[in-house]
Design a protein that fits this description.
The structure holds 2 protein chains of 2 kinds. By secondary structure, chain A is of the alpha+beta class. Chain A contains 2 helices and 8 strands. In chain A, strands 1, 2, 3, 4, 5, 6, 7 and 8 form an 8-stranded mixed sheet that branches. Chain A is elongated. The two termini of chain A are about 15 Å apart. Chain B is mainly alpha-helical. Chain B has 5 helices and 2 strands, in the order H-H-E-E-H-H-H. Chain B has helices spanning about 5-35, 50-55, 75-80, 95-100, 100-115; strands at about 55-60, 65-70. In chain B, strands 1-2 form a two-stranded antiparallel sheet. In chain B, a hairpin with a 2-residue loop joins strand 1 (about 55-60) and strand 2 (about 65-70). In chain B, helix 1 (about 5-35) packs across helix 5 (about 100-115). The chains are: A alpha+beta, B mainly alpha. At the A-B interface, strand 2, strand 3 and strand 8 of A face helix 4 of B.
C-alpha cells in the first residue's frame, strides 16, 4: 500500500513548484483563518480505492486511486484572470501522466478523468472571496505485503 | 438456422447486455454519489435532515442517456468541502470521486452480469 502521508507530501511538493500561488494555505487538518483581502489555497487529500490485481496476495500488486482537491480562493469582484491563470498554472504542474516519486513507490496523475478547474463562484463561508475548485485524480501500483 | 440468423441473435444479445450494463452502471453511479461506494471510494452525502440526500434524482432521458441531479443550493458547498461545512457523517467530493471511478463501476457491473466470471 502506498504511504499516503508521503503521497500527500509529494503532491504538496509538486504544488509548491507552481509560481505565484497564494502564500496563505489551508493545509489538511490544520486550523486556518483567511486574512481579509488575501487570497488563499485550500487542500483536501482523499485516498479512494485499493484493489489487489494479481492472483497472489503476498508480494502481489495492488492498484490504488486517490484524489487531491484544491480550492483557489481569490478576491471577490476582481474578475476572473488572476484566479483562472493561477488555476491554469497548477493544472500544468499536474498534467496527465505526471509521475511523482513516493518513497520507493510512485503515483501517476490520471488522464481519465484528467485534472480540471471548475467554475469561479462566491465562497459562501468566507465573504469577500471567490473560489475555484481544482480536481486532481491519481493512481498507483504498489506491492502488497501481508504482515506476519 | 442460418448464419445471418446467428448474427442477428448475437447482435440482439450484445444490445441487451450493453443496455443492462448502462442501466446498472448509472444506478451504481447514483448510489455512489448518494450513499457512498467501495467501488469508487466516494463517501456519500452527509445526512442531517435528509434534505440533501433525498434530493438526488436519477432520470433516464433515453436508452443511452441519464441525468443525476440535485436542486439543493448547498449541494456544491458539501461537494467541494467549503471550509466551515460540518459533516455529521459521510463526507465531501462524492460526485467527483464517483465520476473518477466510473470505469471501475462499469467493470464491476459487467462482471456481475457475467455471474462474477
Amino acid at each position: 500500500m502506498i504511504d499516503h502521508a508521503a503521497a500527500l507530501t509529494a503532491l504538496r511538493t509538486r504544488l509548491l513548484t507552481v509560481t505565484d500561488i497564494p502564500v496563505d494555505r489551508a493545509w489538511e487538518n490544520v486550523k486556518f483563518r483567511p486574512r481579509p483581502g488575501i487570497a488563499f489555497l485550500e487542500e483536501d487529500d482523499v485516498p479512494a480505492t485499493q484493489e489487489l490485481i494479481t492472483v497472489a496476495a503476498q508480494g502481489g500488486m495492488t492498484q490504488e486511486t486517490g484524489s487531491y482537491f484544491l480550492r483557489w480562493n481569490g478576491i471577490a469582484n476582481t474578475g476572473h484572470s488572476a484566479i483562472r491563470n493561477g488555476v491554469g498554472r497548477i493544472l500544468l504542474a499536474f498534467a496527465p501522466g505526471t509521475v511523482l516519486a513516493v518513497g520507493s513507490d510512485w503515483l501517476c496523475i490520471r488522464g481519465n478523468p484528467a485534472p480540471k478547474g471548475g467554475q469561479i463562484l462566491p465562497n459562501p463561508k468566507h465573504p469577500g472571496f471567490a473560489a475555484c475548485p481544482i480536481d486532481i485524480h491519481w493512481w498507483a501500483l504498489t506491492t502488497n505485503t501481508i504482515a506476519p | 438456422m442460418s448464419f445471418p440468423d446467428d448474427i442477428k441473435r448475437f447482435s440482439m444479445k450484445v444490445e441487451a447486455r450493453t443496455q443492462a450494463i448502462f442501466v446498472g452502471s448509472v444506478a451504481e453511479l447514483h448510489t455512489a454519489i448518494v450513499e457512498g461506494s467501495a467501488i469508487t471510494g466516494s463517501p456519500g452525502q452527509p445526512v442531517h435532515t435528509g434534505n440533501l440526500r433525498g434530493s438526488w434524482k436519477l432520470m433516464f432521458e433515453s436508452a443511452v442517456s441519464a441525468l443525476i441531479s440535485t436542486a439543493v443550493s448547498y449541494a456544491r458547498h458539501v461537494e467541494e468541502n467549503v471550509r466551515g461545512v460540518v459533516f455529521r457523517n459521510h463526507g465531501a467530493h462524492s460526485v467527483a470521486l464517483a465520476i473518477a471511478g466510473w470505469q471501475r463501476i462499469v467493470e464491476t457491473v459487467a462482471k456481475r452480469l457475467d455471474g462474477g466470471r
